[in-house]
Structure formats: C-alpha cells, structure tokens
Amino acid sequence: MEFEEMVKNSIIFTRAQFDNAKDAISFLAQQLKDRQIVKETFLESVLEREKKYPTGLQLGKINVAIPHTDTEHVLKSGLAIATLTKPVMFRRMDRPEQEIPVSIIFVLAVSNPKEYVKFLAKLTTSFGNGGYIERMFNAQQPKEIIEILKIIFGREAK
Q1: For the CA atoms of 127, 26, 74, 137, what is the dihedral angle to 10 degrees?
Q2: What does the DSSP assignment read for 40-56?
Q3: pLDDT band at 97, cuts 50/70/90?
Q4: What is the pLDDT of residues 57-92, one digit of tens each?
Q5: Strands, E, within 58-158: which ranges?
Q6: Could you tell me the pTM of the whole model?
C-alpha cells in the first residue's frame, strides 16, 4: 500500500532552520535523493512546479507547504518533513500573489500516479482534524511525527 510506503520512507527533521523556502526544499529533496527515493531531476522539477503552482497553505498560526512534482521524477514513494524554528516564506496555493510564513514543510515523493491525489487529499484533510499540525510542530523527535502520520493514514502505531 502506498501510504505504508510513504510513512516507512519518511525522513523527518524537527526544529530545523533555513534561510528561505528554496534552501528548505533543496535540503529535503537532497535527503530523498541520498536515500534513492527520487531521481536526480526531482529537485529542479519541484522548484519549477513551486514557481508555477505554489504550495503554501494558510491554516492559522501554523502554516504548511507541500512541495511536490510529477511521479516521473520519483523512484519510490517517500516523504521528507521539516518543522522549523523560524518560519520561511512560501507563496500561497490559493492566492499565489501572497506570501505566508510556513512552519512545517512536507516534500512529497509519490511513485504511483493513482495514489498521488488520494495521498494529498488525506494529508490536507488531516490539517483540520485532531490538532495534528500543532502536535507535529511541537514534536521534539521524528518518531513523534511518525506516530501522527500513522494515525492520519489509518495505520496503528507499532
């Protein structure tokens, strides 16, 4: 199942610091590449897509961004997440002319085109439920975020 693979291949950094969105995306994409989850072309494709279709989501006091790209740049499904000590600016998905401060970044690598929309929908739906975003933001250890992801995607934490 795609969701299990995404959670299994999660790379998580809590309390990270970056100067800007590009630096954050570049770092997280490199982590995916280093683990042979994405192809060499992944980073450039994510950055190009972010210019055309920004991924910042305004949720309230803790905003998120979900940079991603087409499945052709992915070897296997995975997810790189960073919670930030200081927000970086991303353009809004729904109002691209506006920038918002983002405190959690999810860089998605989904290998199965059929699962892509389902995964995004499940993740974004979770943002309004159960205080998941606040719990992720306050997590001190990556394993805490893994536990939350397992809940979001309907898998009991083991």
Answers
A1: -20
A2: TTHHHHHHHHHHHS--E
A3: very high
A4: 999 899 999 999 999 999 999 999 999 999 999 999
A5: 64-65, 78-91, 99-109
A6: 0.92
Residue 69: closest CA among 42, 96, 91, 104: 42
**Per-domain residue ranges of the chain:** 2-152
For residues 67 and 46, is the Cβ–Cβ distance under 8 A?
yes
Among 151, 115, 117, which residue's Cα sits nearest to residue 131?
151
Grouping H, G, I as helix, E, B as strand and the rest as coil, residue 101 is strand
Q: What is residue 121's predicted lDDT score, i.e. its pLDDT?
A: 84
CA–CA distance, 34 with 32 (Å, rounded to integer): 6
At the second CATH level, the architecture of 2-152 is 3-Layer(aba) Sandwich (3.40)
- Amino acid identity at 66: I
pLDDT digits (tens, 9 = 90+) for 117-151: 888 888 888 888 768 999 999 999 999 999 998 88
